[in-house]
Amino acid sequence: MRNETGCFLQNIQLVNFMCHDNLYVAFTKKVTCLVGNNGSGKSAIMIALGVLFGVRATAMRGHSYKQYIKTGEDYSVIRVELKVKGESLQPDVIVIEKRLSPESSRIRITTNGEASGKTQDDLNALIEQLRINLRNPLCFLTQDQAKKILKAHNLKSIYSFFKSATDIENIENNQIHDQLLLQEIKKSLEAATTRQANKEKTLEAVANRLEIKDAIISAEESIRRLKVEYAWGRAHQEEKRRIAAEREREHMLNEYASKSQEKKNNLAKLEEITGKLSVLAQKKNSLQVRRQDRLDQIKETLGKNERRKVEILKELEQSEYDIEQMKKKVSRIEQILGRPAETSEDQKKSEESLEAALKELNNEKNQNEKEQAQLAVQKAQTELTISKVHKEIESLEQSSQKKQLILQSYKQQSPIKFYGPAMEAAIAEIKAQNLEVTGPIGLEIHVKDKKWSRATESALGSCIFGFILHCKNVKARLEGIFAKHKVHRYQIYVTTPHAIRKDDRILEKALKVSQSIMQQASSVSSSPVTTVLAQIQDSNPLVVEQLIILLGIEKIGLLDNRQSAYTLLQKKVGFEFFLTPAPDRIQYIGTSLSDMRCTVREKQLLVSQESETELLHEIEKMKEQQKELFQRKNTLIASSGEIQSALASHHEKQALIQDRIAELEEEIKRRETMQTDVLEIEYKNSIQMMDAAEKQKVSVAETYKEVLHEIAASQAEIVRILEENKCAQEREEALHKKEIKQYTLEHENITQASQENEALLASLQRRIDKMNSHLEMLHKECACLRDTAMDLSSQHILHVEREPNEIEGEIISLTAKSYAYSSQPALHEMSQIEGMDSTILDEEEERRVLLEKKKELECEIDRINMLLQENQEEIEEIEKGTLERVRKREDLTYKISNSSIRNFSDLMSMREYSGSLEFDHQKEVLDIRVKVTEASKGDKNSLSGGERSFSGLCFLLSLWPLITSPLRILDEFDVFMDALNRKAALNLIFETARRIDTQVIIITPLGVSNPPADICDVITLKPPVR
């Protein structure tokens, strides 16, 4: 909306306000970004403007304005200068000054140098005139409000913020005030009607007074006599009631004692059932762990076989490649040699006998070769297995040697060795140059319980390579030293000195957070829980505070029991994630729990006794595996020797057959042409090599089949175990549910009985208390009745024969007769008639006075009738106007909500997101729907922290054009945003500020890079001297 007042904040000056002695800030552009480190006093400017323009102290980190006076000072001054559009061409300059002291505050307002106000009412009128509305959270967004709005999940609270920010809530409150005022008018008219009726009754009383006065005197005398008798009858009757009530109270006290004992018995039974339920849960968890261990062992075996399968496949591929190359070579030789020449008919006949004998020998040779090939395959498989066992032995030896070296380094642990010789040389030079540097951080860490050493090192990550310093010049020298010694892995953190920021109490606050979270965790889970901060809090305070700022170590949990970690994360007691001693990292990723093993370096900086024990256990396990592999290797070597002996026997037989075949072939060769050239020999050798390769391939294929069979068996075993686990789990679950149901039913029955017992006890207690009060009242009443009776009978005890009811009946009869007259206004004494005094008058004078009173009452009644008629018409007009304003307010609500929907969608589209606002004005709920991708659901809870904060800021900016205020302040709105979303959010603020006529002040501890120079000015505050 347009800033019709033309108001612009020129500058602000703070004297002795919060952390500032004398701060002056000038505002020259439409958007001003106040940046600076934590503790530089940025928020003090926002709080000062809030104090000046009517924001409550409770909404700004405080309880009262006087606590904003700087410590040690007697007063504080806030002074602002505003430029406002005036009636003339020149704008008016308004200076507002507010002086705070512990006892009071003073205000001084000047316009163009002339005093124009000095009271809070004057200031309120000026604020109203300039339309400065910093009470609106949309115009005055503090850190706490930003966190609540940007992370809000409650749809009603978002809608409530929408109403408050758009002033619809104020309109509703005004309408409610009007309705209450209308009700007050109606009540006044009802009172006037009642007064009219009273006047009429008074008039009637005046008219009838004289007629019935004598009858009343007679009846009152008789009633007075009967009241004495009635008083003594009541005294005797109340004494009897008191005795009966005491007997009844004694009976109730006995019953209360019996029910109290029954309550104690029920509580003991409930404790017993709770213990049984806990035992059942532990038993179920134990069975699940054992089944999972068994499944993990089989999966490990399956993994080894899968790796063997890959190796064999590679060997098969190599064999196929070699065979293919040999086939190509044989084909080339056959092409060179060509087909053999045809022999003559005589040669064929002469060669038939030789070929028949050769064929018989070849058959015998083939049979022997087949047996020999089978033995060769067995030998090849055995040798391949021996080779693999040998490789496994060598691998285990290498791993064992590596573990031995790590163990030796543990025993001779020197933390500086962890960083390597380059870092060691760099640290030595840093010490030689006497630089004010703390680090590396890993050398400054001391873990209380060494069990958590690996987990702590995993949590710290790359921060253990960090160095802390307080000067940028030192940073440049430090980087030069690292470059000189070729140190590539390091982190440098430039911070303020610990002595300067000790008032921030970072460590103290973090310890409180850590203790609070651990207390909440202990109430949810019985497993012992600690945090990284609790383990290293005795280390260097500067290092610990830096890790709190960087990693939030007060919210990183350390826990042995995984199940307890799952429970604590689901309960959201405050932990970011958990680490186990292994270490395993358990955390939420999106809406799912993630449990993964952290990568652990072979060299460890923070070494624990448990790590050494675990490493020794691993080395012993490797030695046992080596022993088993050696035994297997010896068995395979013996088997290979037996196969070799059988092969030698077949070779001898093959040699004899070969000799006989050779003789026949020599005879055949003499009758054939010369074919023993070099190509023929090479051809035969290639054929033999190809046959050998085929045999090797067959052997490897057999081994591959065995591995596939083992994999299939392992997979089938896994399926079988999973099915068994499923069946067993179903049986256990059914049995567990049955037992749980049984114990729960018993628990519910006892609980119900306890509740009924509690209700009965409470009822008895109330009855006893009521009876005690009743008895006390009876005691007092008996004493009172006796005293009254004594007073009525002139201190004489009267024995009454009649019952009080009988006497009361006679009194009622006389009282009824008297009341028939006394209930009318005419029965009142003169002093009780409105406008009459108690002066005793004679009959004639009293008549004259009564006639004047009658005339006066008639006039008064006529006046009230006229007043009622006039006001009734006015009430009808007010009710009609109220209904019309309610209708217009509802129309305005829908128009504003539709505008905000369009604005929000346009703002989200600038980030290429899809967003919408879903209003339900009947239920007063507002849902923010955001899609960052086409596949996302649109649920705000599924977004990252930066995306959720960006969408929240878009919601705030969508409402900006709908309200009128010349000044808007945002304090640390970007606290949950990453760099990308923060940059996009700042651009949106700048673009929105261009479109609306308002002044914007942004407070952020982060820098603002490349702001638009035409509308934005960046002011960096330096930390004040404290």
From TrEMBL:
Record field: transmembrane: none
Pfam families linked: AAA_23
Family designation: Belongs to the SMC family. SMC6 subfamily.
Coiled-coil region list: 235-273, 309-413, 647-674, 840-881
Main location: nucleus
GO biological process, one term: double-strand break repair via homologous recombination
Any one GO cellular component localisation term in the record: site of double-strand break
Top-rank taxon: Eukaryota
Signal peptide: none
Stated name of the protein: Rad50/SbcC-type AAA domain-containing protein
Molecular function, one GO term: ATP binding
